[in-house]
Task: inverse folding
C-alpha cells in the first residue's frame, strides 16, 4: 500500500459519527493472550508453544476505526480471530456491549456473528468458486432471519450490491467469483459481511491483495460504510500510512506485544517507540524529511522462544540492559498517546482499555500454561 501520508487527506466524515462515540465501547478485549501448542515431532519431546499474543487490551467504539499495525507475524490476525471467536483466547476476556462473551455452541456463535463480522484478506479464497453472488449474499440473509423468500433475497441482495458500489446490481447478482476482478470480489465479501447488519467489522488487511489502483476505492467504501452504518471497525494493516488515512486511533504491535498507541495523527506524525519509527521510516513517502532512515536490524524473532523483556531489544538501536530484563510499563505521552519503552520512563504496570480505544501494558500476572492439543496447528503468528 502506498498511500502518501504526507499529502493524502482523509475525506471528511459526515457529522453525526466522528467524535460522537459514546463512553462505552461496544467491544473490548481485555488482557488477551493466545498461545498455540507446537505439534511435537517426537512423543517424548518437550511441549513448546508459540507465544502469539501477550496481554493485549483494546476497545472498539461505534462509528470509529482502530488500526492495528505491525509486520507479518506480529499477531494482528490472531487478535482479529480471537475477537471473531475463530480462536479461543488462552487467557483474557472479550466483552460485547459490556457482557463477557461465552459459549461455543453453534447457536451462541451464530448469535455472536449477527453482530461481529470478519472480512478476510484474500478475496480469491474467501468466496466459494462453485457458488454465485446471489448464493453468497442470500445465505447469511436466510441464516440470520433477514429474508424468508426468494423475492426478499433478490430485493436485499440487489440493495447490498448497490451499497458496495457494484452497479448495475442486476448485472452482478448472477455472476460467479471467476467472472469478477479482485476488487469486485472484495466488495462482494464486504456485502456478505454487511448482510447480517453487524455492529462490529473486523477487517483483516482488506486491501493488501488488491491492485494498487483500486485499494483507495475499497478503503473509501469502508470509510463510508463505517460512517453510514456506525460500524465499529478494527482495521488490520501492515501499512502504517493507510492506518492514518483510515482510522481515528492506531495501535502498533510487535512480536505479539503492543508497543505504542493513541490518536493516529499523533502516533504517525510523532512516533516515539523505536519500532514505530522503523515502520514509518520504511514506508515510502516522498514528502518526509524529518525522520531519517533507521537501520533495519534483523527480523521479527521466533515466538516459540521470544526474547526476554522488550521483544524488540535484539533489533533496537537504543537497547539498554534493562530492556533485556523486563517489559516496560506504559508511559503516557499526553493527548491519549502512549508507549511501552524505557526511553520514556519506567511506565505504569497497568493495562485496561482507555477512552481512545487503544492500550496495553505487560501484566504483572503470570502467563497461563498451555495444555498440549494434538489437533491444534503450529503457527508462526
Ligand atoms: Fe528499545 Fe528498550 Fe525501548 Fe525496547 S524498551 S524499544 S529495547 S529502548
Result:
Amino acid at each position: 500500500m502506498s498511500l502518501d501520508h504526507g499529502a493524502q487527506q482523509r475525506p471528511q466524515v459526515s457529522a453525526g459519527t466522528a467524535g460522537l462515540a459514546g463512553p462505552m465501547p461496544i467491544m473490548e478485549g481485555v488482557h488477551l493472550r493466545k498461545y498455540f501448542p507446537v505439534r511435537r515431532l517426537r512423543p517424548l519431546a518437550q511441549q513448546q508453544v508459540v507465544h502469539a499474543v501477550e496481554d493485549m487490551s483494546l476497545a472498539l467504539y461505534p462509528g470509529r476505526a482502530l488500526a492495528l499495525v505491525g509486520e507479518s507475524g506480529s499477531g494482528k490476525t490472531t487478535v482479529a480471530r480471537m475477537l471473531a471467536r475463530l480462536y479461543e483466547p488462552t487467557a483474557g476476556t472479550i466483552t460485547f456491549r459490556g457482557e463477557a462473551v461465552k459459549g461455543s455452541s453453534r447457536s451462541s456463535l451464530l448469535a455472536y456473528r449477527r453482530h461481529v463480522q470478519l472480512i478476510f484478506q484474500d478475496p480469491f479464497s474467501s468466496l466459494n468458486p462453485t457458488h454465485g453472488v446471489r448464493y453468497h449474499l442470500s445465505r447469511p440473509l436466510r441464516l440470520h432471519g433477514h429474508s424468508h423468500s426468494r423475492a426478499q433475497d433478490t430485493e436485499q441482495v440487489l440493495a447490498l450490491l448497490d451499497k458496495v458500489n457494484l452497479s448495475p446490481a442486476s448485472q452482478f447478482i448472477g455472476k460467479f467469483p471467476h467472472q469478477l476482478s479482485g476488487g469486485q470480489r472484495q466488495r462482494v465479501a464486504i456485502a456478505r459481511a454487511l448482510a447480517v447488519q453487524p455492529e462490529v467489522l473486523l477487517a483483516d488487511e482488506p486491501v493488501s491483495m488488491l491492485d494498487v489502483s483500486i485499494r483507495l476505492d475499497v478503503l473509501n467504501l469502508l470509510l463510508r460504510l463505517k460512517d453510514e452504518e456506525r460500524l465499529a471497525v478494527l482495521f488490520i494493516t501492515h501499512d502504517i500510512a493507510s492506518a492514518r488515512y483510515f482510522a481515528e486511533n492506531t495501535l502498533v504491535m510487535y512480536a505479539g506485544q503492543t508497543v505504542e498507541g493513541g490518536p493516529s495523527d499523533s502516533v504517525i506524525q510523532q512516533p516515539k517507540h523505536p519500532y514505530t519509527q522503523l515502520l514509518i521510516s520504511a514506508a515510502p513517502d516522498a514528502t518526509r524529511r524529518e525522520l531519517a532512515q533507521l537501520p533495519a536490524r534483523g527480523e521479527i524473532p521466533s515466538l516459540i522462544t521470544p526474547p526476554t523483556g522488550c521483544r524488540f531489544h535484539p533489533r533496537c538501536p537504543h537497547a539498554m540492559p534493562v530492556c533485556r530484563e523486563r517489559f516496560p510499563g506504559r508511559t503516557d505521552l499526553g493527548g491519549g498517546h502512549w508507549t511501552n519503552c524505557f526511553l520514556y520512563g519506567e511506565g505504569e504496570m497497568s493495562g485496561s482499555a482507555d477512552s481512545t480505544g487503544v492500550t496495553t501494558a505487560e501484566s504483572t500476572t503470570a502467563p497461563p500454561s498451555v495444555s498440549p492439543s494434538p489437533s491444534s496447528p503450529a503457527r508462526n503468528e
